Here is the input.
Amino acid sequence: MKIRGAAFRIVREPLKAAYGFKGGALHELWQSLVRLKSEDGNTGIGIGVQSVLWSDPAVYALYGEEDGNRLMSSITRHAAFASTGREAADPIALTKMLAQEALRYGRERIHPELSASFALNALVPVDLAAWQLYGRASGAGSFDELLPKGMRGALGHRQERLAIAPAIGYGMPSEEIARLLAEGYAVLKLKLGADPNGDGDKVAMLAWDQARLTAVHELAQGRRTDLTDSGRVAYYLDLNGRYDTMDRVLSLLDHADRIGALDQVLLLEEPFPVTDRQEVGRLPVRVVADESVHGEEEAVQRISDGYGAIALKPVAKTLSVSLAVAREAHLRGIPSFCADLTAGPLLLEWNKTVASRLEALPGLTAGLIEVNGPEHYADWPRLGSYHPRWGASWTVPREGRYELPAEYFAGSGGIFETAAAYEAMVQGQSLSGAGGSV
Here is the structure.
């Protein structure tokens, strides 16, 4: 697979309201589009969604939301241009070539300690464009046929149901949470680690988090579901690396125990900053690694630190890296699942493609996928219309889950089909230089 040309475009999508997490908030999401063309004339389009706050809060704090987005898009543009003239056996090899280049470029131009997550977030559309190109060029009938043999064990399952975990941001009102519960959502991802006074006070953060968990637990009482072993709603607590001590994390979990919610905590994600390696195996819940894992090496490190699950992010850290991480976790008996980055409908399909092939997490009777786009984008139906298979039964959630029939797996969710709207958006956008403007 040799890349002959590339095209790039940014499309800005508004949100319904500010989406608060990691002590900050996002007000719009930039969609990055990359089209790659190979020497044999095949093309592939990749979609990404930029999240400066998620990928590097330091960049968000230093530059703000809009300038942070412009800087991330400059890495995407540079990586797309840098891919031209490259030859690789498959997308995994191409992304491996580009990942260090993208991080180097970002650290030279944005911040010397730029996180690897920021660079990988920027690289997603290039990686997915390469996967679509690879699928079309190879003539493979499905995603399964493209998987390297060493990764098929980790992705050898077929989940006919995916439990959807919507993200409950700081500002989501109780009425909206109650609506989600009434519709059958059985796994709630609570964004904790708030900064209620905007002053970084960790005591106030813990108090806010405890009150939030209490409020959600009260709303969920009495709800029954067939998606969990217990029949009760499960909580996925995302601390976003905001906690500074083990004692503070234990205080949160002690509070959960006091209100009768501890045995409903399915997952606790990233309690500490990525640079703070602590042994978490003694915590009474399954702890998830997410931002701290940028490849196989970090996955192995976190598993040795007692982390009991890995959140894969094909839509945020590239499909290629996510597949490699899934393989390492599987080899060590550690479950993984797919987390979101407020992906649009077609980008979400790539996440579902992976999530539906992973083994179910202990405590669930179905696969798991985080989905938060419908709750946050201002015009989800319009974004859905860009999906070449929009309206198929498996694109529409029912009772808090996706039902995935045999035709879904046979057609790989439409990820290798032509999305005419996105094709039109990148027409005339061919790259002729490696500059970073948008």
